[in-house]
Design a protein that fits this description.
Distance between the termini: 23 Å
Order of helices and strands: HHHHHHHEHEHHHHHHEHEHHHEHHHH
Strand content: 5-15%
Helix content: 55-70%
Largest sheet: 5 strands, parallel
Number of domains: 1
Number of helices: 22
CATH class: Alpha Beta
Shape: globular
CATH topology: Rossmann fold
Number of strands: 5
Length: 415
C-alpha cells in the first residue's frame, strides 16, 4: 500500500517550509498556538471585546480544549500550524463582528428558519452536488462560502471578502494539488455546514482535519452558532429582496447523520434529504479525501488509523436511521435520493424532491440545473481515482458489510 507521501507528493516550496522547523527545534517554535494570545490578538485587531457567549455558550472552554488537543496530539507541521493559526484568528474575529452585528440589530434573531432542506448521508455519496444543484433555485438560500467565512462586511465589500476567502481556500490546493480532483474548493459556491460551524470551536471540521482525539466537540453549540449566521444572511437577503417571499434554506453535511434528533429539535419542519450510494465507491473515496485533508497539515503516516475510522460505521449509521424511521422514532420528513438517479437524470430526480416536499419546481429552476451542470462537467479538475484495494481494503468484505444497508434502501451497485 502506498504511503501518504507517495499518494500526495508535496510541492517543493511546501517541503522547504515544513523542513524549516528542523532548524529551530520544531514547528511549534516557528508558529505558536496559544488560546489566550490569539484571543488578545483578535481583540486588538478588531477593537471589540464581546465574543458572543450568549450565542453558543462556553466558546472559550471549547477553544482551549481544541488548542490543547492540537498541540498534544495533532503532530502539525509548519504549514499545518500556519493554517490552523489563521483559521482560529479568523474564527475569533468573525465571532466578534457577528456579535456586534446582532447587538446593533437585535431584530436579526427574530428571523425564522422554516422548512429547510438538510442534506446528509455518508460522505462521498453525492451530498455536495446535491447541495449545489438545490441552491440554484432562486427561491433557495444556501451558505455561500465567502459569506459563511465572513458573515459581516467589516473587512470590506463583497468582492474583497470573496478574494479573502479564495486566498484561504486556494492555499489548500497549493499545499495539496491533488485536492482539486477530490473536492472542489470555491468561494462562490455553498459551504458545508461544518465550515459554517467552525467559529463555535465545537464543530466536527476541526476533528476531520486533525487527529485531535480529546477535542471536546459540542454539536449543539456548533448548530446554535450556525443558526445565527443563517439568521444574519436571511435578514440581509430579505432586506435586499423585499418583494420576494422568504427563501427556504439548503444545508448539507454528512456529520448530521448521527445527530438527526438534534437536527429536528432545532428545525422541526426540516426535510432531510438522505443521499445513498454504493459503499464500494463511498468508502475508498472517503478514505482518500480524509487522508489528503489530514496529510496537508501533518507528516504523520496514518493510513491504518484512518482505515479503522472508516470501518463499517457508515453502514451502521444508515441502518440505525432506517430502523428509527421504520419505528416512527423520527418525523416522517425524509426524502431518499440515490446518487445513480441524480447522475442519470438530475432534473427528474430533483423534481421528485420538490414534489415530495410540496415546493414549486419552476421551469426557470429546471434550466438553472441544466446550465450549472453544463458549466461543471465531472472530472474537469482531473479524475479522482480510488479503489478499495488501494487502501488495504478487501472488496468482498466491503460488499458483505454493505449488504444490509443496500438492501434496506435498495441502493444500486455501481460498476
Amino acid at each position: 500500500m502506498k504511503t501518504l507521501a507517495e499518494r500526495f507528493p508535496r510541492p517543493d516550496l511546501v517541503k522547504r517550509i515544513n523542513l524549516m522547523a528542523n532548524t529551530v527545534g520544531g514547528a511549534a517554535e516557528l508558529i505558536s498556538l496559544e488560546a489566550s494570545e490569539m484571543i488578545e490578538a483578535s481583540r486588538r485587531v478588531t477593537g471589540l471585546d464581546d465574543f458572543g457567549e450568549r450565542i453558543d455558550g462556553d466558546w472559550r472552554g471549547r477553544l482551549e480544549g481544541l488548542v490543547a488537543s492540537l498541540n498534544a496530539e495533532a503532530d502539525l507541521n509548519v504549514m499545518g500550524r500556519l493554517q490552523v493559526r489563521q483559521e482560529i484568528l479568523r474564527c475569533l474575529q468573525s465571532r466578534l463582528y457577528l456579535t456586534k452585528k446582532i447587538t446593533d440589530q437585535p431584530e436579526i434573531l427574530g428571523e425564522q428558519i422554516l422548512q429547510p432542506f438538510i442534506i446528509t448521508g455518508t460522505g462521498r455519496s453525492g451530498t455536495t452536488i446535491t447541495l449545489e444543484l438545490l441552491s440554484q433555485d432562486t427561491n433557495a438560500l444556501a451558505p455561500i462560502a465567502w459569506k459563511a467565512f465572513h458573515p459581516t462586511a467589516d473587512l470590506g465589500d463583497n468582492d474583497t471578502l470573496l478574494k479573502l476567502t479564495e486566498c484561504e481556500q486556494d492555499l489548500w490546493l497549493d499545499i495539496c494539488p491533488q485536492m482539486a480532483a477530490i473536492h472542489e474548493l470555491r468561494s462562490d459556491i455553498p459551504d458545508e455546514c461544518i465550515g459554517v460551524q467552525k467559529p463555535s470551536f465545537g464543530g466536527m471540521l476541526w476533528w476531520v482535519l486533525h487527529d485531535v482525539q480529546t477535542f471536546p466537540m459540542d454539536p449543539e453549540a456548533a448548530m446554535k452558532y450556525q443558526k445565527v449566521v443563517m439568521q444574519v444572511m436571511q435578514f440581509e437577503h430579505r432586506k435586499k429582496y423585499a418583494a420576494k417571499k422568504t427563501p427556504h434554506w439548503v444545508l448539507k453535511t454528512p456529520t448530521y447523520l448521527p445527530m438527526l434528533d438534534l437536527v429536528f429539535s432545532m428545525y422541526p419542519d426540516a426535510w432531510i434529504i438522505l443521499n445513498h450510494r454504493d459503499p464500494l465507491k463511498t468508502v475508498p473515496s472517503g478514505m482518500s479525501t480524509f487522508a489528503a485533508s489530514r496529510y496537508m497539515r501533518s507528516d504523520r503516516e496514518a493510513s491504518e488509523q484512518l482505515l479503522e475510522i472508516a470501518g463499517n460505521a457508515r453502514n451502521d449509521m444508515m441502518l440505525d436511521v432506517h430502523r428509527k424511521r421504520e419505528a416512527g422514532d423520527l418525523p416522517d420528513r425524509f426524502i431518499d435520493l440515490h446518487f445513480s438517479d441524480l447522475m442519470d437524470d438530475p432534473v427528474k430526480t430533483l423534481e421528485a424532491v420538490y414534489r415530495q416536499s410540496e415546493k414549486t419546481f419552476s421551469q426557470d429552476y429546471q434550466h438553472a440545473i441544466t446550465d450549472y451542470l453544463t458549466s461543471k462537467p465531472q472530472g474537469k479538475h482531473g479524475k479522482h481515482k480510488y479503489l478499495p484495494e488501494d487502501w488495504g481494503m478487501d472488496t468482498e468484505t466491503l460488499e458483505q458489510e454493505a449488504e444490509a444497508y443496500m438492501h434496506a434502501y435498495r441502493v444500486k451497485k455501481e460498476s
